[in-house]
Write a structure and sequence with these properties.
Radius of gyration: 17 Å
Helix content: 40-55%
Order of helices and strands: HHHHHEEEEHHHHH
Shape: globular
Strand content: 5-15%
Structural class: mainly alpha
Number of strands: 4
């Protein structure tokens, strides 16, 4: 996974799909990834007006809250059930939704999914190889916010996603 993150994502994206998505050196693409869910019927029903306003306030502050990061190729849907082992015990990733985004997006999917204590070694090595700063763990819930909003929008049962969103947005409520 770290090798994928360290690839020249722009060059690979051009060769593979012929186009390159927006760079994530700023917060604008991330704002879009969050605010796009607000008009969805289930999101409107699950989050009250104060929650939605808190999300808008968070998006206004994203440049201050999230550090600038270079974009890279990511798995795009890397949660615990998409990590398997081959017959000889090597890790294997399945069901990719390849995207050109922050490496921390994949990390947030794994971090916010239930994982065994042994996974600490994976997270530590990944952070070391990809140059993550010491605060990366504190950003994981915020980066996972988009996934929670997607779950609310797409499913009748949200598995606690609305509660997670409200907890993440609490500092941005007035």
């Amino acid at each position: 996974l770290a090798r994928l993150v360290l690839l020249d994502g722009v060059g690979v994206a051009r060769r593979v799909v012929g186009v390159v998505g927006q760079d994530v050196e700023g917060a604008i693409p991330v704002q879009h990834r969050l605010l796009r869910w607000l008009p969805e019927r289930r999101v409107q029903a699950s989050l009250d007006a104060q929650d939605r306003q808190a999300l808008e306030r968070l998006c206004e502050r994203l440049p201050d809250v999230l550090p600038s990061r270079p974009a890279c190729l990511t798995h795009g849907d890397l949660w615990a059930h998409n990590v398997l082992a081959t017959d000889d015990g090597r890790p294997a990733l399945i069901d990719p939704a390849v995207s050109y985004m922050w490496a921390e997006v994949d990390l947030a999917h794994l971090w916010c999914s239930p994982h065994p204590p042994e996974a600490k070694r994976f997270f530590d090595i990944f952070a070391e190889l990809t140059g993550l700063d010491a605060d990366w763990r504190s950003r994981m819930p915020l980066i996972q916010l988009r996934q929670h909003l997607a779950v609310i929008a797409q499913f009748d049962h949200d598995w606690g996603a609305a509660q997670q969103v409200r907890a993440i947005l609490k500092p941005f409520r007035r």
